[in-house]
Amino acid sequence: MPGTADRYLYLTRHAEATPDETGLTEAGRRQAALLGERLRGVPLTAVHHGPLARAAETARLIGERLDGVPVRVAEEAGDYVPYRPSREELPADVADPMLGFLGRFPKEEERVPGAELAAEAVARFTGPVAGDEPRHELVVTHNFLVGWLVRGALGAPAWRWMGVDHANAALTVIRYAPGRPPGLLVFNDTAHLPAPLRWTGFPPHLHV
Q: Distance (Å, rounded) from C-alpha 193 to C-alpha 170?
C-alpha cells in the first residue's frame, strides 16, 4: 500500500494591481519578483494561479525566478466568495457589516458558485499527499481564498474566512501532515519586501 507524505502549501495574494485590475503596478511587479527570489531554493513542484490577469502576471514573474518549476492556471484559485453565511451564524455585533460587505458581490454575477470552487480548491490543494515524498506547491490567488484555506487549517467556523486578510505578495505556508491537524507555519509574512512595498491592499491605519 502506498504511504502518505506531508504537503506544504505556500499561499500568496497576487501582487499590487493597477486600478482597472488588468495587470500589476510597477510596485506589484517588484513585489512578485522579490517573492520569487525568496522562494528560490524551495523544492516547489508547481506554481498554480487563478485565471485573472493580476494573479497570472504575479505567477509568471515568480516563475521567472525559479528553475524550471511549471506555472499552471487553476480556476479554483480564482477570485470568488467561498462561503456566504446566514445572519444566524454570525455574531450579532458584526452581522450587519459582514452581510453588507457580502452584498457587494451579488450571487447572480457568479458564473460558477463560489462554494463549489472553494470545495474544489480544498480537494486539490490541501491534505497530505500520496507517496513517500513531501510536496511543496505555491498557489497565487486572491484575498478570499487565502482566508478560506487559513480558516480551514485552523478549524474555525465557515464564516470566519471573513476578516482573515492578506497583503499583496505576502507569504503564508500551511503544512498538512499525515495523522496531524494542519499547521499554520507562516502567515502574511512580508519579510522579503522592503517597507514601502509592504501592506499594499490594506488601509494605512492597519499597517503594522
A: 8
d(CA 207, CA 191): 14
Instruction: Tell me the angle at which helices 114-125 and 143-154 cross, rounded to the nearest 10 degrees.
Output: 60
- The single-letter code of the amino acid at 176 is Y
Encode pLDDT of 11-62 as tens digits. 999 999 999 999 999 999 999 999 999 999 999 999 999 999 999 999 999 9
The neighbouring-strand residues paired with 14 are none
Give the position of cell 502506498.
2
Q: Which long-range contacts (CB under 8 A, 24 or more apart) does 182-186 make?
A: 182/126, 182/152, 182/153, 182/154, 183/153, 184/150, 184/153, 184/154, 185/8
Under-70 pLDDT residues of the chain:
1-2, 108-112
Predicted TM-score (pTM) of this structure: 0.95
Measure the CA–CA gap between 15 and 140, rounded to whole angstroms.
Answer: 9
Instruction: Record the cell numbers describing residue 190, joined without a space.
Output: 512580508
pLDDT at 108: 66
Of 75, 66, 24, 59, the residue nearest 45 (C-alpha): 66
The strand pairing partners of 47, in sequence order, are 71, 138
Helices of type H across 4-94: 26-39, 53-63
